[in-house]
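S.,

As promised, the MRU run. Input:
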Amino acid sequence: MAVMTIEWRADTVRMIDQRLLPAREVIRTYRDYRGVAEAIRTMVIRGAPAIGVAAAMGVALGIKGTAGAKAKKRFEVVAKALKATRPTAVNLAWAVDRMERVLEESDSLDAAELFGRMRAEAIAIYTEDVAANRAMGQFGAELIGDPATVLTHCNAGALATAGYGTALGVVRAARDAGKKIQVFADETRPFLQGSRLTAWELHKDRIPVTVIADNMAATVLSQHKIDCVVVGTDRTAANGDVANKIGTYPLAVMARRHGVPFYVAAPLSSIDLDCPDGASIPIEERSGRELTEYGGKQIAPKGVRTFNPAFDVTPAELVTAIITERGVAYPPYTESLRALKSRR
Ligand code: MRU
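Predicted complex:
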């Protein structure tokens, strides 16, 4: 499928501007880490694995022209700026820390060699993400019936990753295995990742997709229209509590109420064993203007109070299984996730 989310080209980072989709397909080009950090903060690029890749590429741009002690000093500044952009998706910090480990091992390199090494690592993070998504797709596709209708929330597709997608990777793999698959996509207020992005990329990929408003999920579940729910995650804690786009938790409650399996597609880069449970996951709060304005139009009274948490936490007890690139984890997650993470 020809969706370019992010790429490294001629020592610049290029991204499709996801704020403008589906109306316009505009590619932005970044030459320094500040631009990349701003792109992450303002949601030009979003989705946990995608912002991890962007951060790694941002680090490579940031240390360009430096070596030795100067590179380490520069890294501190660059890492701080990138990590401050969005707190919930652990992939971002994971990718920056991985770049730091390469820097630590590169003391003897000159500036050109170091840049080459950091660039190679950022591109490896990109390539490994696509491979992880494909592997997750294979494991996940076995959980999907034929025919099947999958309900998803937010966008956990090619646009949220280096390519192929996590939750939508499972859908794609099931389709590629010959299964007759269709998707119901929650529109995902307030940023509309479901209706703008999930519907856009599935439609492009000729996978049948039906957009519903978030408050219609209980109705389609109660009408037995849905065989399973598959979502992505920004950070999954050691006990299997899952942080994902706001509105995921109610979906899991509704799925349980209607006896529908609730699956999470989680690359290992998004599983944080240092977080014991969901309560220790930092939840980003975004500007209230995302609620009171849309497309430059006022849709709630000016000056009204708002509360705009970007993510919620689904307790592990509501999660049927967690699909990773090394296999499928089942409860108790404290054991199964640790076992998958430590397996080589
Ligand atoms: O605020 P966003 O759009 O970055 O939130 C994205 C999500 O919540 C996705 O579901 C999650 O990152 C998983 S993407 C593979």
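The chain has eleven helices and 16 strands. Residues 46-49, 89, 154, 156, 160-161, 166, 193, 232-234, 244-245, 310 surround MRU (CB under 6 Å).

- D.
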